[in-house]
Amino acid sequence: MKTETLEPGESIASGDNPGSSKEKKSSMSPVSDVLIIMPAFNEELNIGSVLEDIYKEAPGIPVLVINDGSGDKTAEIATKTGAEVITLPYNSGYGVALQTGFVYAHQRKIPIVIQMDSDGQHDARFIKTLIEEIRKPDTDVVIGSRFLGACEYKAGLLKRAGMLFFGAIASLIVGRKVTDPTSGFQAAKGKAIEFAASDFYPPDYPDADFIILLHRHGFKVKEIPVAMRPNAQNKTMHRGHKTLYYVFKMGLSIVVTLLRKKPESK
After folding, report:
1. Strand boundaries in the chain, DSSP class E
2. pLDDT tens digits, 47-106
3. Rounded to whole angstroms, how far apart are CA atoms 153 and 72?
4. DSSP 138
5. Dist. CA 71–CA 248, nearest whole Å
6. Cα-atom radius of gyration of the chain, to the nearest Å?
């Protein structure tokens, strides 16, 4: 297997096939209509076990790791474990890395995309549940919520307050309850994948603002209960001073989202 390095925002030509090795364990099998995309930044301690868990719980589904300019062995471990890897030359942020995966899927006309994190927070047992839900008619995006069903997830005070705040804003705008606006454990299909690959996708944190965007553009979004756990090293994008930065950026992004005009219907 090999990895491909992309400039952030650079398109992947439909004829190219990064990492086209024929190794027996390669996960990029053409028989699946589902692709799992996984942004990763300096996750050498977690990525191997996360991928092995995916292969165990969802065998036969290919995995694309978007290595977001990591300075450790994230890409090397992911490749050896059997994932396809696209490496961005420098750390571009979660949203850019995630959208790279959606661009890849859209250009290859992959029908269903599952997005999940590389830190071990998302329970791979629920991949099949997300796939079952996204295959249902009248559903474009399925969000795995850690706060539905038998909620056992414990979030820090500031993080939980931010979730409740932006969940309340999103709920008010979309007209339904949004319980987990920061969940990165999602499924999308068809036009929703194309939309995520477009310029409408939020470049920083595609959380509550993206849920609002999906609603305004007529996509049908639902939440289902999933289990999540704190990652092994207790890392998070929304911790300490990053929490205040996140609140500011997300609030600004929501305002911009509400000011943006929807494209003309063809």
Report:
1. 3-5, 34-40, 63-68, 84-88, 112-115, 141-145, 186-189, 221-225
2. 999 999 999 999 999 999 999 999 999 999 999 999 999 999 999 999 999 999 999 999
3. 29
4. T
5. 28
6. 17
Measure CA 3 to chain center. 20
The vertex-258 CA angle with 9 and 98, nearest 5°, equals: 25
Considering all CA atoms of the chain, what is the largest pairwise distance in Å, rounded to the nearest integer? 50
CA-wise closest residue to 65 among 54, 193, 195, 250: 54
* Integer Cα distance of 84 and 18 in angstroms: 8
> Could you give the CA distance from residue 245 to residue 259 in angstroms, rounded to a whole number?
21
On whether the CB atoms of residues 180 and 167 are closer than 8 A, the answer is yes
Q: Which amino acid is at 176?
A: R
What is the rounded distance in angstroms from the CA atom of residue 117 to the CA atom of residue 97? 11
Question: In the numeric block, which tokens belong to residue 22?
Answer: 């024929």
> Can you read off the two tokens belonging to residue 139?
């559903």
Torsion angle of C-alpha atoms 12, 205, 210, 259, degrees rounded to 10 = -110
Query: Is 0.85 surpassed by the pTM of this model?
Result: no
At which residue do the structure tokens 């063809």 appear? Answer: 266
Tokens of 184: 């990165």
Tens-place pLDDT, residues 160-171: 777 788 889 999
**54, 37 Cβ separation under 8 angstroms:** no
Domains of the chain (ranges plus CATH)?
3-259 (3.90.550.10)
Q: Which residues pair with 144 in a beta bridge?
A: 224
Q: Give the residue from 185, 237, 201, 232 showing the smallest Cα distance to 41.
A: 237
